[in-house]
Amino acid sequence: MTDLRFSLPKSTFRRTTALVAVTLAGLLAASSPTSAEDGAGGAGTAASGEARALAAPDIPLANVKAHLTQFQSIATANGGNRAHGRPGYRASLDYVKAKLDAAGFTTTVQQFTSSGSTGYNLIADWPGGDADRIVMAGAHLDSVSSGAGINDNGSGSAAVLETALAVSRAQLQPTKHLRFAWWGAEELGLVGSRYYVNNLPAADRSKISGYINLDMVGSPNPGYFVYDDDPAIEKVFKDWYAGIGVATEIETEGDGRSDHASFKNVGIPVGGLFTGASRAKTAAQAAKWGGTSGQAFDRCYHSSCDSTTNINDTALDRNSDALAHAIWTLGTEEPLPPGEVYESTGDVAVPDNGAAVTSTLTVSGRTGNAPAALRVGVDIKHTWRGDLVVDLLAPDGTAYRLKSSSSSDSADNVIATYTVDASSETADGNWRLRVQDVAAQDTGYIDSWKLTF
Ligand code: TRP
Ligand code: ZN
Ligand code: CA
């Protein structure tokens, strides 16, 4: 861990490696899992896999709720909704934009037309960070016309807004560039987000490392659902929830049904959080999360009763804190220095003309995927190496053939370095070298092997 290879962005920069042991235990002791108070998550919950990122602050629930109160007032003053093409939408956008402008964001209003009305996306860039690696979070800001849309999707809009404002309060200096977005006309079929993505030049699309979507994150009878898409984003959310002792499930109530689909469709990695819409909570879900089984997660979904009373504070608080954790973790992580070597030196006998054997190497503390040129150093002692079939097994079991058998190759030993494109594999986990001897008489053993990340 050669920290000195990196310049520290600012004086308050510190790695969470040292913090985890101190603060995680303290936080867990101090906060009950069902607490609606702030502090259920927040600073110090970084898991070991993201040890090289800054710890996020707690997002004050009161601030998030204050935004919801404003969205409700805006709807009430504008015919009861904040729908596309109605004055309540533009007023919502102006409210969010004013907060971001005052906090130092560079905001852009992007205009489009849908169903004969002008729609608007709001994009807010936090100055700084690597412009080639953008971490993005967004939420749709429009409601349906039948109500104020406080859970759908004032909740996601307010959580993203308050996380952005927390970035400003911290004067965060992320390694990656941070961008926040509020979409118009989602309720007409993901119109605003699709417009944004379609108008991004292909070269800019590939700079978005990940898009995180929050749509309905304060459902009154909540479930805790994490999108099952990009593994790195999913892990950051699951780790955060594991840290407060709350079970999560994979989101299955309609995978293409929110703005992340616009990004996913063009190959941008996505993730997100969701507390459920019109589907009913099962008995098993009520047992682990509380609430009412047999009842919809949100009985006011797309109805006039989706008002400020249609919010579960604990769910809103947790998801706001979880988003901040994801932004801090993904936005401030330092790439581990290339060239780190993991080695296994325990001997493993390879039975003659027998079953395959494996030797395991545990890789931990890295984020994201393995390199496109993962080097696999192999040292197998054997008296006829043509007998041997050698594979590298990724943590998920995917096999990469390193060497096939060959009856004519009578040389001793396999001492070689292979290069494997492992960029689709998660780096952390148990990697295995699998060796099988497929012909009789000569034998040997795995002496050592190593992976260079
Ligand atoms: N706004 C979404 C919609 O009306 C709500 C929704 C339903 C949703 N299922 C979802 C959001 C799954 C995220 C994930 O369709
Ligand atoms: Zn929605
Ligand atoms: Ca043999």
From TrEMBL:
Principal place of residence: secreted
GO biological process, one term: proteolysis
Location of the protein in the cell: Secreted
SUPFAM superfamilies named among the record's database cross-references: Galactose-binding domain-like (SSF49785), Zn-dependent exopeptidases (SSF53187)
Gene Ontology molecular function: aminopeptidase activity; metal ion binding; metalloexopeptidase activity; serine-type endopeptidase activity
P/Homo B domain: residues covered: 336-453
Family annotation (InterPro entries): Galactose-bd-like_sf, M28_fam, M28_SGAP-like, P_dom, Peptidase_M28
Cofactor(s) listed: Zn(2+)
Superkingdom, natural source: Bacteria
A Gene Ontology term for the protein's cellular component: extracellular region
Leader peptide range in chain numbering: 1-36
Pfam (any one): P_proprotein
UniProt KW keywords: Calcium, Disulfide bond, Hydrolase, Metal-binding, Protease, Secreted, Signal, Zinc
Self-association and partners: Monomer.
UniProt record similarity statement: Belongs to the peptidase M28 family. M28A subfamily.
Protein name according to UniProt: Leupeptin-inactivating enzyme 1
Native organism: Streptomyces cadmiisoli
